[in-house]
Amino acid sequence: MLTNEILEEIYKFRETHAESFNYEVAAMFADWRRRQSESGKHSVTLPPKKKSTKSSQSTTSQV
Predict the structure, then answer these.
(1) Whole-prediction pTM
(2) 5-20 and 25-39 helices cross at what angle (nearest 10)?
């Protein structure tokens, strides 16, 4: 099987990061947010998508 060094590095970082927060998702997310705000890079927050008003029922053709 082929190995991808870049992916292996990402997996290792993710595992180390998760382990350092005892695998608590809320704490990891807070850290990601903190890192993002400290980076000074511009980020965009999009509003939630609106639900479609069209009926999701499928149409059937009559024979």
Answers:
(1) 0.55
(2) 110
